[in-house]
Amino acid sequence: PILIFDFGSQFAQLIARRVRELNVFCQLVRHDLPAARVRELNPKGLIFSGGPASVYEKSAPKCDPKIYDLGIPILGICYGMHLVSHDLGAKVDPAHSREFGRAILHVHSATGFLEGLPDKSTVWMSHGDQVNQSSNDFEMLASTDTCPWAAVRHKTRPIYGIQFHPEVNHTEQGRLILKNFLMNICGCHALWKMQTFIDRTISEIREKVGNNRVICGLSGGVDSSVVAALLLKAIGPQAACIFVDNGLLRMGEADAVRKMFSEWYKADLHMVDAEKRFLDALKDVSDPQLKRKTIGYHFIEVFKQEARSIPNAKFLAQGTLYPDVIESGGAVDGPAATIKTHHNVGGLPKELGFELIEPLRDLFKDEVRRLGVELGLPEELVWRHPFPGPGLAVRCLGNITKDRLEILRKADKIFLQELKESGWYKKTSQAFVVLLPVQSVGVMGDGRTYENAVALRAVQTDDFMTADWSHLPHDFLAKISTRIINEVRGVNRVVYDISSKPPATIEWE
Ligand code: XMP
């Protein structure tokens, strides 16, 4: 593999994704991974990420200096470049001002590391320090107007540095530079392919499971569906899928899961109809966090009960993804946990007593989607927007009743249908209807009405941590509004949410 040393860059995961896109397997590791461990992992190359520190700070993150003697190619990016330069005798200067944004890179030597690059191209900078005077051991490969040592090579060791960020899209030749490093310098081959991953994962699952049974919780979303599809391919009838219908799903959702897994895949599917239990428990609950807690608690109880009815079940399969593993600090050699408050209620506690199977724990979301396609899951499922664990409960503001949920479902169905037909579904990251706890006056025919208002929410985002509201065309919004008011009894007003995150959140509760 390629190991990416995380020096605290906001872009470390992005570097990993870019490397994977070039079909080379890579892992994010702690910046202080000992050289002995690096040797054991036998990587073809190392990438040192950027980071917010300055190499002269006392607390600046360092790598084990013995790594430089392993003979493994290293690419230092931004802070990573400062570190290798500093450690190998060059001088890094604190810049007088931070450089942030685009710059023009002039290439002096378009071979090897910079093979195929034009004389001039745009790169993206984000740094304070820079190398102003390198040592005799380094050769200058490219410069910008303000940064002479923008790309360097060590004269005797396979060590490279770049001041700009090749992983962001604003760096025009970023992918080519990474590719050159991987293929020309490290001698990697583009072998990380989905089919290889599937074959390897299937045999690993078979070996681990033996004759036991595996329980797989289905949510209707992409991740759990891909896990189920993999399991069914690997061990067929030894897999038991549990789907809890909590009465808070969108229209047709439970049926779609039944159709796909029971009829199509012939899976051993345990559908638990727990609508009454959940709605009873949520009666008179209007506080959002209490809704989440209540739903989380009952989900675990219902799941546990159903799991007990499956004999010889020793394993539980979960759709944990690589970013979850990294962010929880759960990667064996990976970086420490980063702060991320996530309110996922889908997690099942350890007390269930199962051994875990997490076949997606090395994958990013876009890779899970590619895997889904490769496994033959329908497009519609593979490209589904995320749906929160507490479901419509957090979109039915205030009190939850069966009637109010039904109004919400009908309106939401119209919105989703129109988004899909117009092609906007793929251009948005998440879109849904919220039923407001507001009644407003309207006129219909000759009569005065006093009915519900709903809000439409549509956002675009890469990581769901920040998001922009989607600029849906007015005509399109008008059509949806007309349809909802005409077709959904109980709604006489539709509004469009034009708040971005932050300061608003994507959900209303
Ligand atoms: P917010 O509203 O915090 O949402 O901007 C960010 C993303 O997280 C989803 N979300 C949840 N997912 N359980 C979940 O599994 C929850 O309680 C929950 N709350 C929000 C939300 O749909 C969006 O994708």
UniProtKB/TrEMBL annotation:
Binding locations of ATP: S219, G220, G221, V222, D223, S224, S225
TM helices/strands, residue ranges: none
Pathway given in the UniProt record: Purine metabolism; GMP biosynthesis; GMP from XMP (L-Gln route): step 1/1
Protein origin, superkingdom: Bacteria
Entry-linked InterPro entries: Class_I_gatase-like, GATASE, GMP_synth_C, GMP_synth_GATase, GMP_synthase, GMPS_ATP_PPase_dom, NAD/GMP_synthase, Rossmann-like_a/b/a_fold
Catalysed reactions, as listed in the record: XMP + L-glutamine + ATP + H2O = GMP + L-glutamate + AMP + diphosphate + 2 H(+)
A cellular component term, taken from the record's GO annotations: cytosol
Active site: C78 (nucleophile), H165, E167
One function term, GO molecular function aspect: GMP synthase activity
EC number: 6.3.5.2
Record keywords, A-Z: ATP-binding, Glutamine amidotransferase, GMP biosynthesis, Ligase, Nucleotide-binding, Purine biosynthesis
Domain GMPS ATP-PPase: from-to ranges: 192-384
Pfam families hit by this protein: GATase, GMP_synt_C, NAD_synthase
Annotated function: Catalyzes the synthesis of GMP from XMP.
Assembly, per entry: Homodimer.
Name of protein: GMP synthase [glutamine-hydrolyzing]
